[in-house]
């Protein structure tokens, strides 16, 4: 996809981190598992969790900028989505190892609010619960005219996605990293209970 006059090499550079992790939206932030917690345990818990929750509509997507990163986000707040993400965080927290001092140092370098600091202590990540923002990242951090060029270019080329109809949130996926620097690996998709589909 060509964005304005940006060279192909620069487009690769500005999406390096986003491409590394793949196109996704996080519900439960990545965590290290407790000793003895393997795929079978989490798989069974996710099967049960998905069976207990119905699919739901989410408002149409628009381009957004979060701390310099271009992402797709619902154009309106979605309470169902916010609540579902909070349920994911709570439901699987018992499998999570507590954060390390290195984790704490990494996150506390940011300008966190008191509530975000408490989120980290309670749930291992600052941006959960009321601070959660559903997003699907498209670029690395950009600024200035380059950011505007990317926004305009994406807006021109994604008219079939942006601001269109609501979409159906109907499944979650379990992913794994073999190391903290590895790419995400999809392990299994878990459909939510069906509801009537969007026309």
Characterise this structure.
Helix content is 35%, strand content 19%. The protein is an alpha+beta fold. The protein has a single domain (8-189), classed as Cyclic Phosphodiesterase, Chain: A (Alpha-Beta Complex), CATH 3.90.1140. The protein is globular and about 50 Å long.
Biggest sheet record: 3 strands, antiparallel
The number of helical elements comes to 7
Secondary-structure element sequence?
Answer: HHHEEEHHHEHEEE
- Please compute the radius of gyration using only Cα atoms: 18 Å
What percent of the residues sit in helical stretches (DSSP H or I)?
Answer: 25-40%
How much is the average pLDDT? 91
Provide the low-confidence segments as ranges: none
Structural class: alpha+beta
Q: Can you count the beta strands?
A: 7
Beta-sheet strand percentage?
15-25%
CATH structural class:
Alpha Beta
- Structurally, how many domains make up the residues? 1
Output the CATH topology: Cyclic Phosphodiesterase, Chain: A
How far apart the termini lie comes to 29 Å
CATH second-level architecture: Alpha-Beta Complex
- Order of strands across the biggest sheet? 2-3-4
Shape type: globular
Brief overview:
Helices cover 35% and strands 19% of the residues. It is of the alpha+beta class. The radius of gyration is 18 Å and the shape is globular.
């Amino acid at each position: 996809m060509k964005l304005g006059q940006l060279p192909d090499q620069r487009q690769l550079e500005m999406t390096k981190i986003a491409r590394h992790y793949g196109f996704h939206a996080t519900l439960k932030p990545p965590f290290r598992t407790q000793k003895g917690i393997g795929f079978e345990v989490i798989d069974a818990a996710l099967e049960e969790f998905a069976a207990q929750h119905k699919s739901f509509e989410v408002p149409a997507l628009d381009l957004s900028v979060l701390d310099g990163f271009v992402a797709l986000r619902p154009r309106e707040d979605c309470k169902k989505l916010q609540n579902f993400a909070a349920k994911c965080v709570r439901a699987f927290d018992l499998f999570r190892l507590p954060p390390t001092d290195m984790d704490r140092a990494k996150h506390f370098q940011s300008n966190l609010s008191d509530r975000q600091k408490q989120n980290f202590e309670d749930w291992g990540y600052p941006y959960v619960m009321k601070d959660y923002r559903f997003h699907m990242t498209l670029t690395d951090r950009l600024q200035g005219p380059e950011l505007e060029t990317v926004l305009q270019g994406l807006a021109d080329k994604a008219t079939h996605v942006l601001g269109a109809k609501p979409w159906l949130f109907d499944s979650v996926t379990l992913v794994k990293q073999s190391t903290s620097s590895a790419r995400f690996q999809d392990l299994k998709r878990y459909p939510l209970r069906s509801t009537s589909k969007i026309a």
